[in-house]
Structure prediction request, 368 residues.
Amino acid sequence: MGVEVVLVAGPAQHDVAEEIWRALPGTVLVRHNLRDLAEGVVRRWVDGELTVLELAHGCVSCTLRLDLLPLLERLGGWVVVDLDPALEPEAVCFALREIDVRVAAVVAVVDRENWLADAVGGDALAERGLAAAADDDRTVAQVVVGQAEFADALVLTGAGRDAGQDAVLDSVLDRLNPRAPRQDRAGMDVTALLSAIPGDARRGRFDDGFGTLLHGQPPLEPVRGVSVVHFTERRPFHPARLHDAIDVLLDGVVRTRGRVWLASQPDTALWLESAGGGLSVGDLGPWLAAVEDWSDVPEDRRAMASATWHPRYGDRSQELVVITATASPEEITSALRDALVTDEELELADQLEFVDPFAERHDAAEGS
Prediction:
């Protein structure tokens, strides 16, 4: 029997997960607590029955691979998974690809009082006692923004600090995840919420990082200081100048996502992603302009590349989407534009030896 899963993520998610469980007859509720994961201990509840697990290796991927995936296969049917607050549903869905499971919905809980401050902040998970392992260096912003962005539906809890802040939060969510239906926890109607999820919603699926970055056609007009910067250019970044300019993406910015073309790495597309003060840079693989055989390239990527093909650069380009809360869109655009190579540098790019701060710091960007 196949498995249908509803994932519930975010702070104070337990009540929401339980309400979804009660509203879906015949489902099983699974919850993990990873607070002692560094010591190799995981606490897991299945319909309220506690099991304490001892893992040889205390890491998130081990918990998913050694416990959650086999558990879901044994249970079958409909399962509501109440994720530990430190878990990002995107990483969980990536792991779920290994088994026969359908993600029916990802629901994220957003705390009106604290979410916005967390989303633009720089606190590490470890500072909040939320790190999933000793070497977990993620920030709170990376987790809460990732949870809300990847969700198919959002549940807002708390009353917020004031009407103005609530309006700013709504404006940010309109741009971060424009198609996800939202409900307040106080009047939550599980059936209505899940029914409002669009038929072509993500539901745990990934793209390869080369698709459209303006998912769901977010509003581009500034509202209450919240803006969307869509930066595109057909020339590479100077790696050292881009490295110096990155700070502009880490102050007053909720989210940056996009593809980066460096003069020092002309054949490789990099993925740059930030949330608050947290930044990650990953390797998306080669630009199609550097690939001779396109037979294994997905048709939609080939079509997109062909539609924008440049006679000299092929599909190489810069494309970044930045959602600001208090940062100046003009300053961001100016800083990124100043980080591009000059005409002279572009002509001599094959001869110049660029100092590249990004050469050793990025890893494969799985599921981006």
Confidence is low (pLDDT under 50) at residues 362-368. The first helix runs from residue 14 to 23. The longest strand covers residues 101-111.
